[in-house]
Design brief:
The protein is mainly α. The protein contains 12 helices and 2 strands. It is extended, with a radius of gyration of 24 Å.
Length: 212
């Protein structure tokens, strides 16, 4: 087979593949899926492509991710972030993303909790996925505030762009019911031009997916 692939370069032009496929002469042959060259984990890449249609149908039916929404999600970045987590934290994060946490409201609707759908911490509101982010039970709030401060410490450590910090503070502060107060970051000038346009596009896409 190796000899045949090398001989293919000597075929008459009309017999060669008409579309351009970047295969190095030393390689002889290569595997492409769409316009992407597979360089590792070929079995996984082929399986993903093989099951792509079923996966898309499942995501649309189960999570309401239509074709338009599907295109706004950066799947490679999501996969990279999830792979860094332990299996337990990864499972919890996926449930958070899909709003399928086993909250009291969810368990009560399924008949798995018979007493109430009330939050067991604050006892004032139903424990929904959204409530988990903003429960005003003091212990829950203190933990959320500590995680918030740690996040900003890490973002500044890696020198996160000012405009990204401003955007996250605006959207996440409200979601987490954390009073932001005055901050030096908010007083800094906002970027303009291409960066501003790209950021607005990213904000629109994130808003369509959901900030939680």
């Amino acid at each position: 087979m190796d000899a045949d692939t090398k001989n293919a370069y000597a075929l008459p032009a009309q017999w060669q593949t008409q579309c351009y496929v970047p295969v190095l002469r030393a390689e002889g042959c290569a595997v492409h899926i769409g316009n992407r060259k597979v360089t590792s984990n070929i079995h996984l890449s082929v399986l993903e492509k093989w099951n792509e249609t079923d996966a898309r149908e499942y995501l649309e039916k189960r999570h309401g991710i239509c074709a338009e929404l599907f295109a706004t999600i950066y799947w490679q970045s999501l996969r990279f972030g999830l792979k860094k987590l332990s299996p337990h934290r990864r499972a919890t994060t996926v449930k958070l993303i899909h709003r399928h946490l086993p909250t009291y409201a969810k368990l009560y609707s399924q008949g798995r909790v018979t007493m109430s759908s009330r939050c067991p911490r604050c006892l004032h509101h139903d424990e929904t996925n959204a409530h988990v982010y903003c429960c005003m039970n003091q212990e829950a709030f203190d933990q959320r505030k500590a995680d918030w401060n740690e996040m900003w410490k890490q973002l500044r450590k890696i020198r996160t762009a000012t405009i990204i910090e401003q955007t996250w503070r605006h959207h996440l502060g409200t979601l987490l019911a954390i009073l932001l107060g005055d901050n030096l970051v908010d007083s800094l000038p906002v970027v303009h031009g291409d960066i501003s346009t790209l950021l607005q596009h990213a904000i629109q896409e994130q808003t369509s997916i959901g900030w939680d």
